[in-house]
From TrEMBL:
PROSITE patterns: B5, FDX_ACB, TRBD. It is found in: Cytoplasm. The lineage of its organism: Bacteria, Bacillati, Actinomycetota, Actinomycetes, Micrococcales. Pfam families: B3_4 (PF03483), B5 (PF03484), FDX-ACB (PF03147), tRNA_synthFbeta (PF17759). Residues 40-168 form the TRNA-binding domain. NCBIfam families: pheT_bact. GO terms for molecular function: ATP binding; magnesium ion binding; phenylalanine-tRNA ligase activity; tRNA binding. Belongs to the phenylalanyl-tRNA synthetase beta subunit family. Type 1 subfamily. This is Phenylalanine--tRNA ligase beta subunit. It catalyses: tRNA(Phe) + L-phenylalanine + ATP = L-phenylalanyl-tRNA(Phe) + AMP + diphosphate + H(+). The gene is pheT. It comes from Enteractinococcus coprophilus. Residues 759-852 form the FDX-ACB domain.
Length: 852
């Protein structure tokens, strides 16, 4: 909402020297957020001039210009303007390319030193063989419109000012506007009437309600016939509750909008179009009541407010033919639909340049009905903005009267004696508010008298009664008609806190109870994310929407289980292709990798933690009632029981190389070892004993995928992805990935991860190479060696797998490095060798291993 300051001063005690910034500082006290400051971007000197001479000159470029002499100072008065290029005689020489004026016309002259919109500075300059000391201005050059009819001739605007008059004051271009943000629940502020009331609240001053000065006559039998025929009420409410119609005849279709009204509309953000349209907008901004003007001579018969019929259409004012919905509320006459109620009128009854008789519509429509219609047809407007937030029912007749009076004043019309006013006033709710409740809820002591005063300042009807149990005063409050948002005690408490001042509310930081903080799962997730980021991986976030094929590829380890996998289908997906909630994080992460690789980031390690959605046998409830009806407890229980399980998962992608190439350095390509290593790092920081064993997954490369196991339960997979899938994703063929069940991992983690003591005694290293059958899993051999070596074994790792010359066909060699250490002494070679031999013996017995 933009608030021209000169307009606001008519209804409030806003000081004459107050700026838009001062106004915003006051309004923010009552909860109206400041947005911006607007002005006309014009600085003087810009004055009224009279054309004394006009000499056309033809030039070699084929253009005809006018060399003009323009008087800018009244006869017999001294020249008071000061600036380089201003003639002391008060007659300026100006070159003008327009031709729509004559000698004797009064025009707008921008003198040297003036600045026009776009930071266009006016100065004396030589052009077409003359020194042009200024410019005769057009509407577009002054930023007043898009007209290209040449310069402004003031007589055509109905003005005959004195020569030398300051144009900024003459056309009210020295005004400015403050813009505020109005929340949806405070639609009453979308008017000068509402803003004036809020300014009075903020400054503890008086204000003049513009509606009080308007005397609207009562309805009579001579008015235009109007009937309500709303057969499809929404939420139990009819689409229209009041319809006021007034007719104004014999208006001058050539009458123009006065400069004061035009300037205010522009500052308010509305482009002037024609006098009738501008009057309707002006009254809407002044009182908050949207109006619509019909060409009365184009109307036929009774006006009926009804819902649209199936297949009905309407050509709206923007020239588009719209197919109407049966819930759309229409204004109709005998010819059919002539407007969408509260949204936009029809083209057939539009007020034109030839209109001499206007019918004014001032109505009160159901907010939900208007909101649905304007969204359905994508027709947001200043009128629908107010109609969807709620309009004061009691202002409709005053707004119609105000518009009619302006038409008489500015267009010479006569108000028809007929007055139409159809509808029943709404019953305002009564809210009971205990006098001590604001203090209890806000935490600041509001005296009873202060609460009573604030409620009265709101315009509410307040009475009092006593609570028989404790004697506390109870205010019985009937909110004013323009405050349809005040329905419960908490609404009134908010008003008390707002109008007394938010600054009075003490800032008290809550003290958290001891022993609270992050949960174990939250701590673990943060620790895991920090560990992966520290290892060089980049955390990303992707949408949870995937295709059915992607869920089946990565959401189940085998093709058989994938076909029976359950998943949640979206009712209104962003994309038809991605119409399912994810059961795995990998598809979104692969899309992130694909986008980055396609943009040249070929060496990439990314990870993501997030929820997946695993539905059970039922989803939701089939007994959900229609809108506006609360579901029963049984239905709510069914809905809650049908909410899919949403465990946390973690996934990572490794593609490209582990480092950049350089002199004497060849980077290593990522492979299956990297995601397994990342999984082991996660296990280390969580204190979980994670086992790795060979596995299979139809989304991974056969033979290059491992199962991640905790307590004999598979919680994830790591390895290289299937080459065919990588080809479809346009990713390198050796891209590796890992995904695991983060909730299962955290559940297995101890509450406290104990740090291992630092042993000061030296370690002893020994290697062992074993020849086993080709199908023996290296991880199983390593596990056997680890168990058999005893407590002295501190670490074991596989460092080589060999098959070839010197190794029997069908066999392979596995080389392990064993690190032995004692916590209380220095190990001897014999002790380490003895533990090594015990491990070898176990491998021979369990796997048929032969020492190489």
């Amino acid at each position: 909402m933009r608030i021209p300051l000169s307009w606001l001063r008519e209804y409030t005690q806003l000081p004459a020297d107050a700026t838009a910034e001062d106004l915003l500082a006051d309004l923010v006290k009552v909860g109206l957020e400041e947005e911006d400051v607007h002005g006309f971007e014009l600085t003087g000197p810009i004055v009224v001039g009279k054309v004394l001479e006009k000499t056309p000159e033809q030039h070699s470029n084929g253009k005809t210009i006018n060399w003009c002499r323009v008087q800018v100072v009244p006869d017999g008065q001294p020249q008071t303007l000061d600036g380089k290029g201003i003639d002391p005689s008060g007659v300026q020489g100006v070159v003008c390319g327009a031709h729509n004026f004559e000698v004797g016309d009064k025009v707008i002259v921008t003198m040297p030193g003036a600045v026009l919109p776009g930071n266009f500075k006016i100065s004396a300059r030589k052009t077409y063989g003359h020194t042009s000391a200024g410019m005769i201005a057009s509407e577009s050059e002054l930023g007043l419109g898009d007209a290209h009819d040449g310069i402004v001739v003031l007589s055509k605007w109905g003005l005959d000012p004195e020569i030398g008059t300051d144009v900024l004051q003459l056309l009210h271009l020295d005004d400015e506007a403050a813009e505020i943000n109005v929340t949806p629940d405070r639609g009453y502020v979308l008017s000068m009437r509402g803003v004036a009331r809020e300014y009075a609240h903020a400054t503890r001053t008086e204000f003049t309600d513009p509606a009080c000065a308007i005397k609207a006559p009562p309805a009579n039998d001579q008015g235009w016939p109007v009937r309500f025929e709303d057969t499809a009420p929404i939420h139990g409410k009819l689409g229209v509750s009041r319809f006021v119609a007034r007719r104004v005849n014999n208006i001058d279709p050539k009458a123009t909008t006065p400069s004061w009204m035009s300037a205010r509309l522009r500052l308010a953000g509305i482009r002037p179009l024609s006098l009738p349209v501008d009057i309707s907008n002006y009254v809407m901004l002044e009182l908050g009541q949207p109006l619509h003007f019909y060409d009365a001579d184009k109307l036929t018969g009774e006006i009926v407010v009804r819902r649209a019929h199936e297949g009905e259409t309407l050509e709206t004012l923007d020239g588009k033919t719209r197919k109407l919905h049966v819930e759309d509320l229409l204004i109709t006459d005998e010819s059919g639909a002539i407007g969408m109620a509260g949204v936009m009128g029809g083209l057939a009854t539009e007020v034109s340049d030839f209109t001499t008789s206007v019918l004014i519509e001032s109505a009160n429509f159901d907010t939900i009905s208007v909101s649905r219609t304007q969204r359905r047809h994508r027709l947001p407007s200043e009128a629908s903005k107010r109609n969807t937030r709620g309009v004061d029912w009691y202002i409709a007749d005053k707004a119609a009267q105000r518009a009619a009076e302006l038409l008489v004043e500015l267009a010479g019309g006569t108000i028809d004696a007929g007055v139409t006013d159809v509808g029943e006033p709404p019953v305002m709710p009564t809210v009971q508010l205990r006098a001590d409740y604001p203090s209890q809820l806000v935490g600041y002591d509001y005296p009873e008298a202060q609460v009573n005063q604030v409620l009265g300042d709101l315009g509410a009807d307040v009475s009092q009664q006593r609570d028989d149990t404790d004697g506390t005063t109870i205010f019985v409050v009937t909110p004013p008609s323009w405050r349809t948002d005040l329905n419960i005690p908490e609404d009134l408490v908010e008003e008390v806190a707002r109008l007394v001042g938010y600054s009075h509310i003490p800032a008290t930081l809550p003290v958290p109870p001891p022993g609270r903080g992050l949960t174990k799962a939250q701590r673990m997730r943060r620790r895991i994310a920090d560990a992966l980021a520290g290892a060089g991986l980049i955390e990303t976030l992707s949408y949870p929407f995937v295709s059915e094929a992607q869920n089946r590829t990565f959401g189940s380890p085998t093709e058989e289980t994938a076909q029976t996998q359950r998943m949640v289908k979206l009712a209104n997906p962003i994309s038809a292709e991605f119409g399912w909630l994810r059961t795995t994080i990998l598809p979104g992460l692969l899309e992130t990798a694909r986008r980055n690789v396609s943009r040249g980031f070929r060496d990439l390690t990314v990870f993501e933690t997030g929820k997946v959605f695993l539905p059970g046998d039922t989803i939701g409830s089939a007994a959900i009632p229609p809108l506006g009806v609360r579901p029963t407890d049984e239905v709510l229980a069914e809905i809650e029981a049908g909410i899919p399980a949403q465990p946390y998962r973690l996934a990572a992608i490794f593609t490209g190389h582990d480092s950049a190439p350089g002199p004497n350095h060849t980077p290593r390509a990522y492979d299956w070892q990297d995601p397994i290593g990342a999984a082991m790092d996660i296990a280390d920081v969580t204190g979980v004993e994670l086992s790795v064993r060979q596995g299979s997954h139809h989304g991974f490369h056969p033979g290059r995928v491992a199962e991640l196991v905790v307590h004999d339960e598979v919680i994830g997979y790591a390895g290289e992805l299937l080459p065919k899938l990588l080809e479809d994703w346009d990713l390198p063929e050796r891209t590796a990935a890992m995904e695991l069940d983060l909730d299962a991992l955290i559940a297995a983690a101890p509450d406290v991860v104990e740090a291992q003591p630092v042993v000061s005694y030296p370690a002893t290293y020994q290697d062992v190479a074993l020849v086993v059958d080709h199908d023996v899993v290296a991880a199983e051999v390593q596990q056997t060696l680890q168990q058999a070596a005893g407590e002295l074994l501190e670490d074991i790792g596989l460092f080589d797998v060999y098959a070839g010359t010197g190794i029997e066909e069908g066999k392979k060699s596995l080389a392990f490095n064993l690190r032995f250490r004692a916590a209380d002494r220095t190990l001897t070679t014999d002790e380490a060798s003895e533990a090594r031999l015990a491990a070898i013996a176990a491998a021979e017995a369990q796997h048929g291993a032969v020492l190489r």
